[in-house]
Amino acid sequence: MTNLSTAKTMLTVSTVMIAILVVILVVVVVLWMHAEVRAKRELEEMHARMLFKNSRIATSSGETKKGDNFYFTYGTAPEYPFCGGWTLIVAEDWDAAEAAFRIYHKGESYAFAYTQDAMEKTGMLLSGNAGAFCHEKIIIEKTLHPGDRAE
Length: 151
Prior knowledge:
The protein is of the alpha+beta class. It has two domains: 1-60; 65-139, no CATH class. The chain has four helices and four strands, in the order αββαβααβ. The protein has a four-stranded mixed sheet. The chain starts with a helix and ends in a 12-residue tail after the last strand.
C-alpha cells in the first residue's frame, strides 16, 4: 500500500509541476506577444512622427505640390556625386528637372529618378538610401520677363 500511496503522491507532484510549467510558459508567451505589439506600435508612431516632420519641412519649404518634386537617387559607385541618398529638384516637369541635374552635376550620373508619389512608395523618405538622405535641394523657378505671357 505504501508503494501505491507513494506513486499517487509522485503522480500528483508531477502533475502539479507540469501545470506550473505550463502556466509559466503561457505567461512568458503572453509577455513576449505584448512586447512585440508594443514595439510594433512604437515603430508605427515613430514613422508617423517622421512623416509629420517631413511634411512640415516640405510645407515650410514649398514642396507641397506633389508633381513638382523630382528625386535623383545615387548608388555607392564613384561615378555618383554622392554616396547614397538623393538630390531633390523642384521643377516644372521632368525635362526641367533633368536639365537642372545636368547643369549642376556635369558629367556625373544618378541611379534612378522618381516623382514625389513614386519616391514615397519606395520608403526611402523614411529609411534613406544606402544610409543617406537628401544631400541637396535645387529649386528651379520660372521667371516672367517683360513681354512673357503668364500661363
